[in-house]
Amino acid sequence: MTKAFYEFFCPVKIIAGHKALEHIPFELSALSVERPLIVTDKGVRGVGLLSHIENVFAAAGLPIPVIFDDVPPDSSLHTVRNATAVYRDNDCDAIIAIGGGSVIDTSKALNVLASEGGDDLLKYSGAHNLKRPLKPLFVIPTTSGTGSEVTMVAMISDTEKGVKIPFTSYFLLPNAAVLDPRMTLTLPPHITAMTAMDALTHAIEAYTCMAANPMSDAYATAAVQKIVGNILKVMDHPHDADGRLELAQASTMAGIAFSNSMVGMVHALGHSIGAVCHLPHGLCMSLLLPYVLEYNQDAIAERLGQLLLPLAGAEFYAATPAASRAIRSILVIRQLRDDLYARCKLPRTLQETGKVKQEQLEQIVEVAINDGSLIYNPKEADRPDLLAVLKAAWA
Amino acid sequence: MIPQKLKLDIERAYVDTMMSVLAQGLVATSRIDKSVHSEFSHFPQGYQVQMTVMPHGPGFLLEANGDGTVDLAKIPKPKPDLCVKFKHHSHALLVLTFQEGTARAFANDRMIADGDVANAVRLIRCMNKMEALILPKMVAKLALKRYPEMPLLQKMIKATYIYSLVAKNLLLGKSK
Fold it and tell me: Using CA atoms, how far apart are residues B107 and B99, in angstroms rounded to an integer?
């Protein structure tokens, strides 16, 4: 069906491939940047990923940038203020974020204060409260899952009030995303698996939820094909740089897709399991994806059936009767989860995680029912519906 | 054929009137429907919710009483706690003529919600329930992802209450 109306926006320059990091000095000089601040976390620094960047700057005869590496797994207003102080003390003029979701969100929020001045970040919270471009922001993802390098959203915790504050603005979008396989080559197997399932869920929800559009469809289907075509190869050969690059590109493509068409119930429930049971986001996506698709199946049968092509390839798609394609898509995803379980014991059910209790399911529902992603789910869902999906995902 | 300007004036008047109906409808529904009352009970006393058409309206401003009911706000805050904005009056027209449901309008980028997302989701559920109560089932089904089944008598009683309160307040000039 033709989409009555849609918007699509992604001004982020993608710099992807082998030796992509070496393009950073040129890209910075093109924007007249002289003193970028590197924002990262101690984990990234600890495994030596910053040495790649330092070598790039050294080889170009440039001073090594100042580094702020104190970003926690869940970024906070306090962290953003500290990073802003380092930015100002060193008279920086741009930001290079190197890390996962928390580092990228911190960098986006830091960019607001660095560009607008002052310390009142909350003034800019909510939707579209920034009115002009910010300082240059480059993002180098070190996982292949979040897609934050191409989204216009940042979530920052107010730890005093115990709430997460959303920031949405076109001006939060980075200037460039640099995808270099060296940055994900050392990811442990279970994180590789979880983040790939995160990206797969972004792509599948982007394709099957209410705001799907022709542009996001193109990115979503290409991302699905790259993920299923490479995840098991990378799990079996972790130092496969080409495979890592394919996953990194797929994650960014899925990010472009979902930032332009939103996500649905998998994310609503996943956010809530994360909040209540403190499970990693990518794992929550993997745990829920087939069960939510089963719930939505009657509303999205045609589109879910179309996904069988990128999920299983042309021959399998052609050999599957049209009426069976939707259920086959779900079975392919289930098989992929089984394959990942065989390789890294990535849990397939809530029970297998050992961290979710059955008596927590209703609490999870109470959080999920007010999650914004539910608006975009193709099928209405009330509390009993959400509980039924969680029970299906239990064991 | 209706001249373009007249057509526009009629559409604007319709959107203006429907904003008043929607506001009064929510005020009334918060008093008679248990699920809507329960949703609004999460809004603290003095919490203000605005729905408006960009750039200059029309729209309405509601204020929560903290007990599950809402009323039209008498004194606007400098910035409402939650603001749902239609990007253009023609987008508001689509929703207020029930050609496009609220969820579909969000999915089609017709609207922006600025404020607490959880409360925006609650507000949408309240609007959906109100539409299910006051609209004929056939029309409501077009606007909603799922029509909540309810006994006809219950629907009639609640719809009558909502329509009478809306009419009374509109006649008394308590529009927005």
Answer: 14
Residue among A1, A3, A5 with most chain B CBs within 10 A, to mutate:
A5
Q: CB–CB of B109 and A7 under 8 A?
A: yes
- B78 confidence band (pLDDT: 50, 70, 90): very high
ipTM for the predicted complex comes to: 0.90
SS3 B22: helix
Taking Cα atoms as reference points, which of A178, A179, A156 lies closest to residue A166?
Answer: A156
Contacts for A37 with CB less than 8 Å, ≥ 6 apart: A65, A66, A67, A68, A83, A86, A87, A90, A92, A94, A95, A96
State how far the Cα of B37 lies from the Cα of B50, in Å rounded to an integer. Answer: 18
Q: How far is B122 from chain A (nearest CA, A)?
A: 7
Q: Please state which of the ranges A101-105, A127-131, B128-132 shows the lowest mean pLDDT.
A: A127-131
B146 in contact with chain A, both atoms CB, cutoff 8 A:
yes
pTM value is 0.93
Establish if B99 touches chain A: CB-CB under 8 angstroms: no
The predicted-structure confidence for A109-124, as pLDDT tens digits, reads as follows 999 999 999 999 999 9
Q: Could you tell me if A1 lies within 8 Å of chain B, comparing CB atoms? A: no
Residue range B157-176: average pLDDT? 82
